[in-house]
Amino acid sequence: MSTTQERLHVLRKLMHSHQLDYYIAPNSDPHNNEIPPECWSRRPWITGFTGSAGEALIGHEHAYLSTDGRYFLQATNQMGKQFFSLLKQTAYLPKTADWLTANANNSSIGIDPKTISIKRANNLSDKLAKSGSKLIFIEENLIDTCRRHFNQLPELPQSEAFILDQQYTGESCDSKLKWLKTFLSEHSANYLVLNTLDEICWLLNLRAADVENTPLLISYVIVSQNKTYLFTDPQKLNAEVSAYLEKNHITISEYSQFEHHLKRLEGTIILDEQQSSMWIYNLASYNSSNTIIYLPSPIIMKKSCKNKVEQAGARQAHSKDAVAIINFLYWLEQNWRYGITEIDAATKLKEFRLQMPHAIDLSFETKSAFASNGAVIHYDPTAETNKVIDNSSLYLFDSGTQYLESTTDVTRTIHLGEPTAEQKKHYTLVLKGHLALGRAKFPQGTCGEHLDALARVYLWEEGLDYQHGTGHGVGSTLCVHEGPQKISKVSTGVGLKPGMIISNEPGLYLEGHYGIRIENLCLVTDQSTATTPEGNAFYCFETLTLIPYCKALIDITLLTAQEKRQLNSYYQAILSKISPLLSPDVQKWLKQECDIQYVTQHDHATSLESVDALI
320: how many CB neighbours lie within 10 A of its CB? Predict the structure, then answer.
């Protein structure tokens, strides 16, 4: 097995042969996968850091890793500190360009054009030019060459594609293609080029397993008025899928033929400059008479606003998710005394999840974190860090499932013993922000950044905060992180719209002690009874997740009457919808967890006698 020192030595020899002063290794791959398949997992290979966000900058004397606040602790623990320095980002944009501008005048900086978007490539080139530096596109990925040198470069994934039936998608492939061709006509364009896999799979109603925990097919698509071309490995397409594609007038070509085909196009080509790579731009511009139009892919917004079938599927998926997680919580409470580790718990939770009907995979590897490990925001247990879960501290788990009906994501933090007053206070402050965001009502046009403070204000009052966004979009049997919507301090300008699914997940992380995060998924819905004076609609959130919070960690004295009523209503929904799906022993446990003493007659909330009637 090669060491970090050996890998950097080989890479620097390659940089020297290309006359490069620096080489950038982004986390991205040719298809914008958040977690690239192993064959394109370059930055983790060269740095040792496995988080989903971050970029490496390698110079001849030293190297740097840029990542955001979610990963400061993880990056510090994983990267070789004698070889890499951490560049701490204050937002989700790498600090690579800022560092180069300040520290590397008149330098040559290399990058693989398949790993950088058109927009970022142009912005980076402009920034570097101010200090006399130049961005150089090298189609040979130098880290791939290093991996071949050490015989550590895997082949492309080889999963089998399958059709996601219209009973789950709510719209046929033919209908989506007709809509997309209308879009081409509206912009007087001949072609639209797609490289982002969730857009391609959504458009064609296909799924596969080429990306870990995400049902995607490695492919490119070119749509024209007359034809649609799918570039992928034909061996992944069985007879049923091939016939389906032929029926929808989709021509199948080898993945490797995309480059040749794109270079031969003539006419007006639409590219999304934030999604399409610089490599794609160079190919599309090969014919100098072509016109390139930069437009956001229309699929992004349409995909994010789930239709009625997809919304119903999300509710079904979350009911199944609730059964799996409630069974897991009951199991953990009964068995933790026998020496259950973080990895044991994650393995058992996966077992419960994949037992559910139509579960095809996890939506990401479970973040199973006890005590101080919970303070590492996106912690993944390893053999070296694996803790035994007991009743001395907090246990945080973040997990999700890919169902045929939808994609789920939920986080809960629990305590199996008697929490301290400080732990209860911290948990309740996070819960108060979570509840405030969950009950928000907001006018049409409201963006996620306008709501973010609702989840943080109770922490801010105590001088506390968390270094991640409050909410991300979620796909329908697609990516667990989906845009364009999010709830964050970072401005997006994207209004929340009915049909969008978004997470609600404030947290708190105390290094060396514990972490707290509470996450539900929510569906944006239209409050049709209310409008602004200008006639704009009001929207609100329908909570999809149906799993109780940790009773032991809630400080009742910190809750308002409104919050108590909100909890009571939520627990009634859990008991009425989920309890009938559980065994008698688990039903009894669930009733105890939902037997909240927070509600009083003075609060005008339903009494526990009526809760008894629900189960």
Answer: 22
